[in-house]
Amino acid sequence: MKAKISDVSLVIATFNEEESIAFVLDELAKFNFYEIIVVDNYSTDKTLEILSKYKVKTINQSGKGWGNAVTDGFNLAKGKYISYMDGDGSYNPEGIVEMLKEINDYDFVCCSRYKFNNKSVDDTLFRAFGNKIFTFICDRFLGLKLSDSLFFYPLIRKKDYKEIVPESNNFGLCIEIPLLLARNNLTYIDVLSLERKRYGGKTKVNAISDGFKILLEIFRMYL
What we know:
By secondary structure, the protein is an alpha/beta fold. The chain has a single domain (5-222), classed as Spore Coat Polysaccharide Biosynthesis Protein SpsA, Chain A. It is 37% helix and 17% strand. The protein has a seven-stranded mixed beta sheet with strand order 3-2-1-4-6-5-7, sandwiched between helices. Helix 2 (47-51) links the parallel strand 2 (35-40) and strand 3. Helix 5 (125-142) runs parallel beside helix 8. The longest helix has 18 residues, at 125-142. It is globular, with a radius of gyration of 16 Å. The N and C termini lie far apart (39 Å).
């Protein structure tokens, strides 16, 4: 049976996204998701007030860290497939449409900003170089064959996700979830989805401190 967007639970993690979350949800209203789950990290701006005006499931995350928010949402999801987007408007929802075209031939699919030598509009020279290094390390030492290891925009079957137990509560989860799935002998592919300039807000990623945490997570996964 052909995979449909109405089978997809979409998870969004938010923290003080008042400038962008309405844009994101208005854009997503054009699609017919099974459900949209927003996991909020106790925003102190008007994010929750804005969310209350939309038909989405909103929960407060149970712990700390971006990875914790994602796993909270994935654990709650009830659709046949699960996907994830940030709440800043930088993800193009058409990426899910493209992944759905491949999911019948593979066990899971990931989006990539760099496939076919493309670039991310959000990159500085430092971040672009760092991503290439992490992607190389993941390929060389973990055997994870993705062209963009730090862009977490996947399409995963819920039944397959239930078979893994991710531990990372930080951005290392970008790598850990596809790695655990691959280690379960699941087949995968990545497809191009160009990142857009964020609609509002500031990046929550610190290239140095978060990069160091990801490196530690890769070391843990390697062992």
